[in-house]
Every structure is written in structure tokens, then in C-alpha cells.
């Protein structure tokens, strides 16, 4: 696919400007974040394209690339949850568990034949989805603990362990984290044409083949996200229950 880089750059600049203008009019103080995120995406995707192209020529390096992606995803999620770097191992374990189970099943049944050129992009999408679910679950649990700290103290006074008292809020945090993935899966093919499906069509695959792979991506994401969100909540229940949050009301 031939791309006119000048026109491509102009469209990106205009879309970024639209985002900034809308945020300004809406009073949203994330304009700088939007610009930085765009520039980072351009730089990071350009760099990762070179790295992935190299990994395709050196299959042994594909595993190392995924480990780096996993570590970066866990760090990003840890920052979003905003409970300090001490929870990084918890988040890393949650994202790794969700990603590993999903990718291992796909590889074991050999439904993505062809080697690293298919497995690496699939695993990267799964890691990204698990990261988002971990972030959303951790943020929701953190906020619920802060807002309803009195209930946690009451539970502890009745004999519950702090972890048990916090775990009462876990199901709602997990449900909130899984909502975007569920909506994406429900809407696939009716409201939206997901990225993998469109990419495969542009690459020459038949609509049927593209649909099969996209379904595998969506269902795999749900599996990874459910594991990551649930494990994140379980892992954070202890740290959150040990000390009253500084931002808790009252």
C-alpha cells in the first residue's frame, strides 16, 4: 500500500488540532496530553515497526520483544492505578497471567499458523487489552475503597480481615473493567469493523478469513481481560485494606 507521507502528516496534524480545539471548547485540561500522546504514538510505532521487522527475521527475538511489551504495559497500568511502584509486581503478574493463558491456548491449538509474524501481533493486542482491564479495575477499586472507607472499617471491626473487607468491592471493579471489551465484542460487525478485520482485508485476506481471526482476537481479549482484572483486584485488596487512603472522605 503506497502512502503519500505529506498528505498523511497533514491529516494527522488536522485531526490533532481538532482534538485540541474540542477539548478547549469543552474545558478539558488534557490538551497537552493529547498532543504528547500523538507524538509519542508516531515515534513509538515507527520504532516498533523497525523492531518487529527485525524480530520477524530473527524469531528467537520475538519472545524478548513480548517481554519488553509486557513490562511496559505493567508499568503503564501501575501509573494509572496510582498506588505507587510497590504494586508493580501485582499488576505485572495480572497482565502476564491473562496474556499467557490466552496466547498459550492459541499457540497450542495452532489456529494462527505462520510463526512470529502472526503470533507477535496477536500477543501484543492481548497484552494491551489486559493492560487496559488491569488499569480500569485497579482505578475503580482504589476509588471505591477511598469513597467507602467507613464500610471497610466496619467490616474489619466485625472480624473481617482487611483484604476480605476490600474484596467486597472487587466484583463491581472487575465488571466496570470488562464493560468496554464486552461492548466492543457485541458491536463487532454491526456498529464497528475492528482493526484486525480491516487490516486483514487490506492485506488481501478474504472476508471470511478476516472474520475468523477477528473473532479470535475479540474472544481472546475477553479471556485475557477477565483474568487480568480479577487478578489485579485480588492482588490489590491487601495493600488497599492495610491503611486508610489519604484522599478518603472524613
TrEMBL record:
Family note: Belongs to the UPF0014 family.
Keyword Membrane: yes
Lineage: Bacteria, Bacillati, Actinomycetota, Actinomycetes, Propionibacteriales
Entry superkingdom: Bacteria
Organism, scientific name: Mumia flava
Bilayer topology annotation: Multi-pass membrane protein
Keyword Ribonucleoprotein in record: no
Gene Ontology CC terms: plasma membrane
Protein name: Putative ABC transport system permease protein
Residues spanning the membrane: 6-23, 35-54, 60-78, 90-112, 118-138, 187-205, 211-237
Primary subcellular site in the record, as a coarse category: membrane
PANTHER family the record matches: PROTEIN ALUMINUM SENSITIVE 3, UPF0014 INNER MEMBRANE PROTEIN YBBM-RELATED
